[in-house]
Amino acid sequence: MAMANRVVNYLLEQDVDFDLLDHPHSATSMESAQLAHISGDRIAKSVVLEDERGYLLVVVPASCRVDLGELHRLTRRNLGLATEYELGALFEDCEPGAVPPLGPAYDLETIVDETLAEQPDIYFEAGDHEQLVHVSGETFETLLGEAQHTDCSRHL
């Protein structure tokens, strides 16, 4: 599978510079980092949470896990992981588990861990398990639109 259509269209609409980095098939963001020889701190991993109010896309470094307690305090929401079925419906142009961190492209409210803003460049899933999109840190911030920035992750 190639880059997801919504990712391609969103990158073109935003008129940003990006590169694609091919890597062997991977099952996790950290495995992608290892196979592509990139620090897990520079790979933006997506975690989709949900509650009765809807979905929330949380973007953290691949080297971290989401701090659900902190997100609960921040959002006052009782969030849990979205199911594989729900992810398939939300990201129908992506392979299962290869969720791009571009909430605005998928009309999802987005929270991003503030440590990603410290990175000079960012890599993220293109919608499959064999390509990463590479953009500058500044460009990544632009692509996130109105995303809220907070400390919402802890290192693995």
UniProtKB/TrEMBL annotation:
It comes from the Bacteria. CDD domains: YbaK_like. Residues 23-141 form the YbaK/aminoacyl-tRNA synthetase-associated domain. One of its GO terms (molecular function) is aminoacyl-tRNA deacylase activity. It holds the Pfam family tRNA_edit. InterPro entries: YbaK/aa-tRNA-synt-asso_dom_sf, YbaK/aa-tRNA-synth-assoc-dom. This is Ala-tRNA(Pro) deacylase.
